[in-house]
Design a protein that fits this description.
alpha/beta, binds pyridoxal-5'-phosphate, Aspartate Aminotransferase, domain 1, about 35% helix, globular, Aspartate Aminotransferase, domain 2, single chain, about 450 residues, four-stranded mixed beta sheet
């Protein structure tokens, strides 16, 4: 770490390489070393880096109108972005509330759900709880962490939360109920109904979940019955369904949104990351006609707002990103290259520390274990996912590590999620480097008993 730096870094004890430029799927450090951005940052840079069409649109907007406060002004760029987004959102999720990132999106979504019931039932409504899931992640602000279930990130701050109820996620590799699909009858989805009954439906405003779990567990795909069952339970008890598509949205899983795999239309959707593909911090909350109608006929105003809501730069970047995605068929490329990536990732299943390989589209995860038969994780102190990450990075591949999902402490996983315009040659190169990195990590991690 440069001792003269005035930065408060993410970790004072970790020395990071200096990124100096990026192009396509590659990032270069100050020594000229080239790295494949194998996880699109954190599933953000879906177009890859340096797309002129997007940077030009942003610079032009910057010159015309950089900012006009959303409480006084409309602006054309954000209107155009909203129209581009609404063209691909599921069902009638046609109204876009713009924000600056994923945590703001999920937190705005739960506030929208709460106010929906106030508009509908009056200020005395008891619907205020948002049921979430263990092993989920919805952001790092206090509100978004309270509805999330990522233990390593919650631990320090949970005494400061207003707690919300949690159910188990569809973690089939380590089923929390000790069952197996399909004989389980998707117990994890039915758990939502049990929770709503236990709490009392009159207190439940919404259920929030990631359609495919991202950073906490590593690309956890639910059984096909899961999301239709969840939709039906929410409808039966009058709770709103919020899909957190911050990581999965905008083509990442081979369809526009991950809920499209199951033809489920949520009431509210939160998105960010790939919405402006890392070019400008942007996010959005997408609301259904039914929900918006209640606001329109009620007070008319969402009691919420941030300075950067719907700023023109977000608008220009989002509109240009979506036009580029649509014109270049990137969702379809994610589907086609996703099949190739999945097949190649599955071929790594015999590596001694590879416990489970899972994913959809261009979002694949590997769970790292010490013992394949017992599925025992490495103890936290072994830093297994950090070692795999370092071994890949040394070979020019950036991957996305996470951990703590087995019991809130132990458990290691990582994701591979390259830009959506990755080619088949690049997919093979990524998996080739990953294989070398994993074998090298095996040598380090299995050298001594745990
Ligand atoms: C599913 C999900 N929701 C919310 C967030 C928070 O987004 P941000 O980091 O932009 O605040 C993330 C970030 O990784 C995420 O993966």
């Amino acid at each position: 770490m440069d001792r003269r730096s005035n930065l408060f870094p993410r970790n004072f004890k970790e020395e990071l390489a200096l990124a100096v430029r990026a192009e396509g799927i590659y990032i270069y450090d100050e020594k000229g070393n080239r790295y494949i951005d194998g996880c699109s940052g954190a599933l953000i840079s879906s177009l890859g880096h340096g797309v002129r069409e997007v940077t030009d649109a942003i610079s032009e907007q910057l010159e015309i109108l950089a900012f006009a406060h959303p409480s006084r002004w409309r602006n054309r760029a954000i209107e155009e972005a909203a129209a581009e987004v609404a063209e691909i959102t599921p069902g009638d999720l046609n109204y876009i509330w713009f924000v600056s990132g994923g945590s703001e999106a999920t937190e705005s979504a739960v506030k929208m759900a709460r106010q929906y019931f106030i508009e509908k039932e009056g200020a005395g409504t008891s619907r205020h709880l948002v049921i979430g899931r263990w092993n989920s992640y919805h952001g790092s602000t206090l509100g978004s962490m309270a509805i999330g279930g990522n233990m390593p990130r919650r631990r320090y701050f949970s005494p400061m939360f207003k707690e919300h109820p949690k159910i188990q996620a569809h973690y089939c590799y380590r089923c929390p109920f000790g069952l197996e699909h399909p004989s389980c009858g998707v117990r994890c989805a039915r758990e939502l109904e049990d929770a709503i009954k236990r709490i009392g439906p009159q207190y439940v405003a919404a259920f929030i979940a990631e359609p495919i779990v991202g950073s906490t567990v590593g690309a956890l795909v639910p059984p096909d019955e899961y999301w239709p069952m969840i939709r039906e339970i929410c409808d039966r008890y009058g709770a709103l369904l919020i899909a957190d598509e911050v990581m999965t949205g905008f083509g990442r899983t081979g369809k526009a949104f991950a809920v499209d795999h199951w033809n489920v239309v949520p009431d509210i959707m939160a998105a960010a990351k790939a919405m402006a593909a890392g070019y400008v911090p942007t996010g959005g909350v997408f609301a259904s006609e039914r929900l918006v109608d209640v606001f329109r006929k009620g007070s008319g105003a969402f009691m919420h707002g941030h300075t950067y809501n719907g700023n023109p730069l977000s608008g220009a970047a989002t509109a240009a990103t979506l036009r580029y995605m649509k014109r270049n068929g990137l969702f379809n490329n994610a589907f086609i290259q996703g099949e190739a990536l999945g097949k190649a990732m599955m071929s790594l299943a015999d590596i001694p520390i590879v416990g489970d390989v899972r994913g959809r589209g261009l979002m694949w995860g590997i769970e790292i274990v010490y013992d394949k038969v017992s599925k025992s994780p490495f103890p936290r102190g072994k830093r297994a996912s950090a070692i795999v990450t370092a071994e890949c990075m040394r070979r020019g591949l950036v991957i996305y590590p996470s951990g703590g999902m087995v019991d809130g402490v132990d458990g290691d996983n990582f994701m591979i999620a390259p830009p959506l315009n990755v080619t088949s040659e690049q997919v093979q190169e990524i998996v080739g480097i990953l294989e070398q990195g994993l074998y090298s990590a095996c040598d380090i991690l299995l050298k001594t008993p745990v």
